[in-house]
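User: Hi! I'm working on a homework problem where we have to compare a predicted structure to a textbook description. Could you give me the structure for the chain below?
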Amino acid sequence: MPASHPDTNSTSPRLRWFAQLCEWLFLAWIATLPVMQVFQLRVAHRYTVQIADFLFVGVVVFSLLAIGCGARQWISVSWHWPLLAYSGALMASTLASGHLHQNILKLVGDLYLVSAAALTVHYVTSIEGLRRTTIAWLAGTTVTAAASVAGVAAFYEGATSPAKNPFLFQFGGLPPGHYPRIRALFLNANMMCGFAIISTALVVAMRQAGWIPKPIFLPLLTSTIAAAAFSLSPGLGGLFLLWAFWRSGVPEERNALRLRRTAGVLAAIAFLAVSTISPPPFRSLPAAILHLEPSGRLQTWAGAWHSFLRSPWFGIGLEGEAARVRYVPASGAIHVLTDAHNTWLSILAHQGVAGLMAFLWVVLHLALRFQRSMAPGDSMARFRTGLELAMICGFLFPAFTGSYENTRYVWAIMGLVAAAQNLSEGNESRVVIAG
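Assistant: Happy to help. Predicted structure tokens:
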């Protein structure tokens, strides 16, 4: 049986109130993860601190106080070991770089993400807690969908540049033209795409679990899928993977199932393949097809690999440039690309083999526990499957075309997967009581 909510162990009404306040702060952090442009603070001219980060400071402080006074309990799970190993790899990379003062802020930011994943498991200790956290996530999804719709509408009303329309993103490697590329309130469109794909899976999973009504489900699902589509990101292949492997619980004819999965996988592969090619301007499309050039992504992958070879064990340091590629896209503007545009290569370049092995442990610890089958009518099992597919399609697939190891919502969704796995497997009883 699932463990009771941690605050039920507190007999004092004041302690129960304090425990609930801690959870509300955590839920506010979840809800504001996609709100990156409303309030920003620049630190060291490189880092953007958003509203969710300020809330997280409150979450940490109040959580420590709550554990210390006995208002909450700390949940100990086996996933904490790979999280600790990855934290150690981050510290080792920072020390081995020989530039501690240059890497220390980045180290603090990365440790924040790891601790956010651990705190997600700490707060999601019951099915009701899982439901509340997912509702908070969908609150942020609603804001993202609304911002995306507003961005498209403003574009066709004449606000066709990011300077006039904050919901738009630059074309990047895409051919310039009269079409909107949406980022909503994220810093870039690719990041928004992954979040929208995760949210699509969560919207469907919540509907199947009976946690949201149909009048809310259909508009939210449609607008979230549309938001992902308008990102025009190579990560969109994850949306096809989600369609291919979603299990509705309704019996499906074997050939139809095989056809759906084959089509979804081929579409995802096509998005990966296209991301390696530099698209030409629309006006020169017929002739340029015969003279295709490698994309900026493909060039940064090669650059990140060479960075890894320079320092294979602990990487070049968290602040080092994974690549340095001079790239001229179809727009004609010169871009200098320093990001690896691939999560695995980015970790290899910055943290070396030690970092990659630790991060793989973080991911594989969850992936090896992915649910392979579920009993008919088991809503919790179905919701857990939805979370696991969200992680696959909204993070693991886009990880091949983007560096998402430092993305806040990625660590939050992994924390939710870990929490759901522990809930459904009955491991939530492993509790360390503080105080």
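For your comparison, note the following. Residues 2 and 126 are 6 Å apart (CA to CA). The chain has one domain: 6-432. Good luck with the assignment!
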